[in-house]
Write a structure and sequence with these properties.
Mean pLDDT: 90
CATH architecture of the largest domain: Alpha-Beta Complex
Largest sheet: 4 strands, antiparallel
CATH topology of the largest domain: Adenine-n6-DNA-methyltransferase TaqI, Chain A, domain 2
Oligomer: single chain
Structural class: alpha+beta
Shape: globular
CATH class of the largest domain: Alpha Beta
Number of domains: 2
CATH superfamily of the largest domain: DNA methylase specificity domains
Helix content: 25-40%
Strand order of the largest sheet: 2-10-7-8
Strand content: 5-15%
Number of helices: 14
Distance between the termini: 48 Å
Low-confidence stretches: 225-240
Number of strands: 21
Length: 466
């Protein structure tokens, strides 16, 4: 098929669409007697109008940000009304539905592993499969390079990449034998199980911290009014807004101040001043584009983890120019705008510059270890940061605000237990990611060679893990 005919078929004539990488990708998929996704599934998207939200309904309302590589993030969700759910039955979600993000970070796909009652917005494609293909296999295929190269090729827009439903229907899928797809499904379940174990281990760290501070079952005041004198309010804090003086914040602070081992200002438990970064002129998307790492909040993940593949990069000139903004392994990074108080532990061995929306903390481990401070900031610290944030449309916390935080001096034995739970969580998450990578690579080998070679690789990898 000529370039003109092919371009007319897909409505694209730009050079990027005909990049050699994409042409080779399509040829490899076609050699395995691929079929269009539209032949295997009904594909739709969610609500296009303003969503009717209802926090009391229990009906999860998923957006593109909730769709990860073969995982759905159910921790940061909204809830829609039953009326919207019934109206949009076509985009309702249940176990074994496959979802794909189609706006922003496009092409992320996941099977829904568990029984849920949910719906989606227009940033998610809902893929409801026939019996002709295994949903776990399809999710892995879409996340392997032969899937992501297709979604990358079809996406349009630079500032806000987009995939439309007609493009998704044209994705070519290698529909291998049922037995091979079943083996991939086993890996998908194993990956999900490891991730659930990781989350459970992290939850133990939070529970231990809150129990230690007497905050596990703590119910702060729900009163909206707190009467303060001018001296005790504006003169002391510089704030006149009622939100700042809500009694619940005083309740939390009082609990920390009453902790048996005492407390310190956060600046007193760090070895260097709190600092945020900047965006250098050379900053570019892609963690391998330039020589050095550059971290933005979009790389922050759940349970204190960070995704290295979502880093941007900078050149050597900017790296050394802004080296005062470097994050080193085991530094704590905290978001200071948008989602205030998102926290991660910087885990790569390779240092990175941070941007202006990220704050860097480096613990004095003689007083508090990295894991304990990170868990504290993610739980209690986040609440206290809500108090000092400014801005309604785009909440913001500056370093001066952050320096008002107080930190309990947790017993060293408890700190060690918290660190063990967090590190165990990291290990389990790494094992989950390894299983996902094995599954993706097995599918790629089946495309590049055959199913038999893929099974040899898969079995070798599983033996190495045992």
């Amino acid at each position: 098929m000529s370039k003109d005919v092919y371009g007319s078929l897909y409505g694209r004539f730009d050079a990027e669409f005909f990049d050699k990488k994409y042409i080779a990708n399509e040829k490899a998929v076609d050699l395995k007697q691929s079929v269009f996704l539209s032949e295997l599934a009904i594909i739709t998207d969610g609500e296009h109008g303003s969503p009717d939200l209802d926090d009391e309904s229990g009906i999860i309302y998923l957006s593109g940000n909730n769709v990860k590589d073969n995982q759905i993030d159910f921790e940061n969700v909204r809830y829609c009304s039953e009326k919207l759910h019934i109206k949009n039955a076509r985009s309702s979600v249940k176990k074994n539905t496959v979802l794909m993000s189609i706006v922003g970070t496009v092409g992320k796909a996941s099977v829904v592993h568990d029984d849920v009652i949910a719906n989606t917005d227009r940033n998610v494609a809902t893929i409801k499969l026939s019996a002709l293909i295994n949903p776990h296999y399809l999710s892995i295929f879409l996340n392997c390079k032969y899937g992501t190269n297709q979604t990358g090729r079809f996406s349009t827009g630079n500032v806000q990449p987009l995939l439309n439903l007609s493009q998704i229907k044209q994705l070519k899928i290698c529909n291998f034998s049922i037995s091979f797809q079943s083996e991939i499904e086993k890996l998908s379940h194993a990956q999900d199980a490891k991730l659930k174990q990781s989350k459970a281990s992290y939850a133990q760290a939070e529970t231990l911290l809150l129990d230690t501070l007497g905050l596990a079952d703590f119910s702060p005041s729900t009163e909206k009014v707190n009467i303060k004198s001018f001296k005790d309010s504006f003169v002391a804090t510089g704030r006149l807004d009622a939100e700042y003086y809500q009694p619940k914040y005083d309740d939390y602070v009082q609990r920390i101040r009453c902790y048996k081992n005492g407390f310190k200002s956060i600046t007193d438990v760090l070895t260097i001043p709190i600092k945020n970064g900047t965006t250098p002129n050379s900053a570019a998307p892609g963690y391998k584009t330039l020589e050095h790492y550059f971290v933005r909040v979009e790389a922050f993940q759940q349970n204190l983890t960070i995704d290295e593949t979502l880093f941007h990069s900078v050149d050597s000139e900017d790296y050394f120019k802004y080296k005062a903004n470097l994050a080193l392994k085991n530094d704590i990074l905290v978001s200071m705008t948008g989602t205030i108080g998102a926290v991660v532990i910087y885990s790569p061995n390779k240092p990175a510059l941070i941007n202006q929306n990220v704050m860097r903390l480096r613990c004095n481990t003689n007083l508090i270890n990295t894991e304990s401070l990170a868990v504290y900031l993610k739980t209690i610290g986040k609440v206290l940061l809500e108090r000092v944030q400014t801005g309604n449309v785009q909440p913001y916390v500056n370093t001066s605000n952050f320096e008002t935080l107080i930190v309990p001096l947790i017993d060293s034995q408890i700190q060690s237990q918290i660190a063990d739970f967090v590190q165990q969580s990291f290990t389990l998450k790494a094992q989950s990611e390894h299983l996902l990578n094995v599954a993706k690579r097995a599918v790629e080998i089946a495309i590049e060679t055959d199913e038999r070679a893929a099974m040899v690789y898969l079995n070798e990898q599983l033996e190495l893990q045992t």
